[in-house]
Specification:
Blueprint (H helix, E strand, L loop, with lengths): L2 E3 L7 E6 L2 E6 L10 H16 L5 E6 L10 H5 L5 H9 L5 E5 L2 E3 L1 H7 L3 E5 L3 E3 L13 H9 L1 H10 L3 E2 H6 L5 E3 L4 H13 L3 H13 L5 H16 L2 H11 L10
Parallel strand pairs: 3-4, 4-5, 5-7, 6-8, 7-10
Antiparallel strand pairs: 1-2, 2-3, 8-9
Helix pairs in contact: 1-3, 5-6, 9-10
Length: 258
C-alpha cells in the first residue's frame, strides 16, 4: 500500500492518502480533539479533497489518540469563535463514503461527527453520548435528526433526554456502530473496511451511498425517482464497461471513476 502524507505539521486536521483511501485525523489531543473553528475548516477541506479527487474512493475519519472527539470546544464557543464550517460538515458530510474510527469516546458534537459518516467502527471500550442537555444546550448538530431512524425513536429519546453515554457494545447492539474492534484497533479495522470498499467502482460506491442515505422517509415512487439519475450516470460510465470486461477476462478491474 502506498502512503502519501498530505498535510504534515501542526494542522488541527491532517490528511493522508493510502492508495484509494483518504485518512482524515483530527489532531488536537491536548483539547481531546474538540471542535473549534480550525477543525471545522480542516474537515471541509478534507471532504473537498476526497470528493474532488477521482483517485480517491472512500475516507476514514478518526481522532488523534486517545479519543475520537469530545465535542464542541466550549472555550472557543464562549469566546464567539465561528463554528459554521463544522455545522456544514455535520449537515452535508461527503459525497463519497466516510467511515468513522472511534477510540475513547465520541460525545456531543463528536458523536455528530460520527453520525455524519456512513459507517462507524469502534473500539470495544469506546463510549457514545449526547450530554448537551446537562449543559443547557441540545444536540443541534444532527444527532436528534439522525438517531431516530438509526436506532429507533425510543432509544434516541433516552440518549437525548438523559444525556447518559452508552458503551460500544450497546451502541453496536442498537445499530449505531457497524463493527467492533479490540481497544486500540478501531483505526486498523476501519482501514480494512475502507480498503474493501475501495476495491469497488468509485461511481458505483458513491451512488449507492447517496441512494441509501436519501431514501429514508420517501414513498416508493419518490425513492425510484431519487435513484433514476444515478442509474443514468453509473450505467453509462466507462467503469460500467470495464467491470463486465474485467470479469470476462478474469482479471481485476481498473477503475477510472468516470
Amino acid at each position: 500500500m502506498s502512503v502519501t502524507p498530505q498535510s504534515p505539521g501542526p494542522e488541527p486536521v491532517r490528511t493522508e492518502r493510502r492508495d484509494r483511501v483518504l485518512l482524515v485525523t483530527i489532531d488536537r489531543p491536548e483539547a481531546r480533539n474538540a471542535i473549534d473553528g480550525a477543525v471545522g475548516r480542516g474537515l471541509l477541506a478534507a471532504v473537498a479533497l476526497l470528493d474532488e479527487d477521482p483517485t480517491l474512493t472512500v475516507g476514514v475519519l478518526t481522532g488523534a489518540p486517545p479519543i475520537f472527539c469530545a465535542g464542541m470546544d466550549l472555550k472557543a464557543f464562549a469566546r464567539g469563535e465561528d463554528m459554521s464550517d463544522s455545522g456544514v460538515f455535520v449537515r452535508e458530510g461527503a459525497r463519497k463514503p466516510l467511515i468513522a474510527a472511534v477510540e475513547g469516546a465520541a460525545l456531543a458534537g463528536g458523536l455528530e461527527l460520527a453520525l455524519a459518516c456512513d459507517l462507524v467502527v469502534a473500539a470495544a471500550d469506546a463510549r457514545f453520548g449526547i450530554p448537551e442537555v446537562s449543559r443547557g444546550l441540545f444536540a443541534g448538530g444532527g444527532a436528534l435528526l439522525r438517531l431516530p431512524s438509526l436506532v429507533g425513536t425510543g432509544r434516541a429519546m433516552e440518549l437525548a433526554l438523559t444525556g447518559d453515554p452508552v458503551d460500544a457494545q450497546r451502541a453496536h447492539d442498537i445499530g449505531l456502530v457497524t463493527r467492533l474492534a479490540q481497544p486500540g484497533g478501531a483505526l486498523e479495522e476501519a482501514l480494512r473496511l475502507a480498503e474493501r470498499v475501495a476495491r469497488n467502482a468509485p461511481l458505483s460506491v458513491a451512488a449507492s451511498k447517496r441512494i441509501v442515505r436519501g431514501v429514508t422517509g420517501l414513498t416508493d415512487d419518490e425513492a425510484w425517482d431519487l435513484q433514476r439519475p444515478h442509474l443514468d450516470e453509473v450505467f453509462s460510465s466507462e467503469d460500467a464497461k470495464e467491470g463486465p470486461r474485467a470479469f470476462a477476462e478474469k482479471r481485476p478491474p481498473v477503475w477510472k471513476g468516470r
